[in-house]
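In response to the reviewer comment on reproducibility (Comment 2.3), we provide here a single inverse folding case reported in full, input and output, so that an independent group could reproduce the run without further information from us. The structure tokens appear first.
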């Protein structure tokens, strides 16, 4: 399974591990890649600035992921999923973009791809999340990488907003 290291992607990574999947993350930010490797016990990490397909081939012995869960909200990343998937694999688009997603139909068919969209959760899904958090199977607090007092937000927010800040989830604390 492959995904990206934002808060939603990290949630997907952790629940895939709970389900027994071999999990590989793909991410542009080196700091987030290191965070995931250090905190989440993943099976691999791919720097999305490099040759993703070659890295995935190496990490999967040329089998490629059987499931790709894309949480990026990035059209290019979503479109590249079709080329990085195992034969008979499934792509799940979690994020919603206000654009068209295009893919090569012969590539889609030759891989016998299943394409899914995910948006809503059921009561059972929420109960599983709560159980996993209570039992320590997923690390909810681990994704909080930055904290600041409300009174300090004018100073810290510009740095948090930078693409290379390493922010996964920031918390503003009120006294």
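Designed residues, in position order:
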């Amino acid at each position: 399974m492959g995904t990206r290291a934002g808060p939603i992607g990290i949630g997907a990574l952790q629940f895939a591990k709970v389900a027994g999947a071999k999990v590989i993350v793909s991410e542009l930010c080196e700091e987030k890649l290191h965070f995931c490797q250090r905190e989440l016990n993943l099976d691999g990490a791919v720097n999305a600035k490099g040759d993703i397909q070659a890295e995935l081939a190496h990490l999967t012995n040329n089998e490629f992921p059987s499931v790709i869960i894309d949480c990026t909200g990035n059209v290019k990343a979503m479109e590249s999923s079709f080329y990085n998937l195992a034969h008979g694999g499934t792509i799940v688009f979690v994020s919603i973009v206000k654009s068209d997603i295009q893919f090569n139909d012969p590539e889609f068919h030759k891989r016998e791809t299943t394409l899914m969209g995910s948006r809503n959760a059921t009561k059972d899904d929420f109960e599983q999340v709560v159980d996993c958090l209570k039992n320590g199977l997923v690390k909810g607090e681990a994704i909080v990488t930055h904290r600041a007092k409300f009174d300090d937000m004018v100073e810290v927010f510009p740095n948090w907003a930078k693409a290379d800040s390493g922010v996964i989830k920031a918390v503003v604390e009120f006294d």
